[in-house]
UniProtKB/TrEMBL annotation:
Gene3D superfamilies for the chain: 3.40.50.1360
UniProt cross-references to Pfam families, sorted A to Z: Glucosamine_iso
Domain Glucosamine/galactosamine-6-phosphate isomerase residue range list: 45-243
Record lineage: Bacteria, Candidatus Chisholmiibacteriota
Domain of life: Bacteria
Alphabetic keyword roster: Hydrolase
Protein name: Glucosamine/galactosamine-6-phosphate isomerase domain-containing protein
GO cellular component, one term: cytoplasm
């Protein structure tokens, strides 16, 4: 990915970090959305058959809306990409449960971008044996090396559902949620979500050829600050990205950047 893919009409600046190849701060959230969408679109322009692992959550809503708009404006087709899921709650029914990540991706991305069903590789979060499903998806990832992994960042600096203490070599697995994640989902968001998920491990994430992390706001800036300037260890899952920083792009807003740079200028 390169800076040339970011629309020149969007105000952004580059923040230097010793480990991360590109750390871009945009003026506001709409700028973050278009900047991140431009990065994804650039990967597909370069490789129409790219394998992309998609994140979900509130952070990505605006990114994917911008991506759909840009793809239509520039007439870029997504019908040859292979679309993967980073994680999903377990159990979750995409036909019924609003919290289903498969449902989220279908509604916000797969259907608007007209990605063929046979090119969508969803996690089956209705199986009776989630560990077996994790193994099935791990085998799929082994067959389809990922060109781009898209990430947000969550409580305790988690990426996908890799929470504090997960080894950096962890492969696809069934995660049991921390109290911080349960509080976010059930108290802050008032969602009756499960307490487990099937998720790609940190090892899967680090294997990706390119990684794009999107974050905005002071709260997420704090989580990211810990990942970027604290120790690299399993207490802070996102700190693992610094081990492969030469293939990482981070797109944030000025509110998050201000937290990152407190006391560092």
């Amino acid at each position: 990915m390169s800076a040339e893919r970011v629309a020149t009409t969007i105000d952004y600046r580059e923040i230097t970090h010793p480990d991360i190849r590109r750390l871009w701060a945009f003026k506001d959230v709409p700028g973050v959305n278009r900047g991140a969408a431009g990065e994804i679109l650039g990967v597909v322009k370069d490789n129409p058959g790219a394998v992309i692992s998609f994140a979900t959550g509130q952070t990505m809503e605006g990114v994917y809306e911008a991506l759909v708009g840009l793809s239509q404006e520039q007439e870029i087709s997504f019908n040859r990409i292979l679309a993967l899921q980073g994680d999903d709650y377990y159990p979750a029914d995409p036909e019924r449960d609003e919290f289903s990540f498969a449902r989220y991706l279908r509604k916000r991305l797969f259907e608007p971008l007209e990605i063929p069903i046979e090119h969508r590789f969803e996690i089956n979060a209705l199986v009776s044996d989630p560990e077996a499903e994790a193994l099935r998806y791990e085998a799929l990832l082994a067959q389809q090396p990922v060109d781009l992994t898209i990430l947000g960042i969550g409580p305790d600096s988690h990426i996908y559902f890799n929470e504090s203490g997960i080894p950096f070599n962890q492969r696809m697995f069934v995660a049991n949620f921390s109290q911080a994640t349960l509080h976010r989902d059930r108290v802050e968001r008032r969602q009756e979500t499960p307490d487990r998920a099937i998720t790609q491990g940190i090892g899967n994430i680090l294997d990706s050829r390119q990684i794009l992390l999107v974050a905005f706001g002071e709260r997420k800036g704090g989580w990211l600050r810990r990942a970027l300037y604290g120790q690299i260890d399993t207490v802070c899952p996102a700190s693992a990205l610094r081990l492969v920083g030469d293939k990482v792009t981070m797109v944030i807003d000025e509110a998050a950047a201000a937290v990152l740079q407190q006391g560092r200028e």
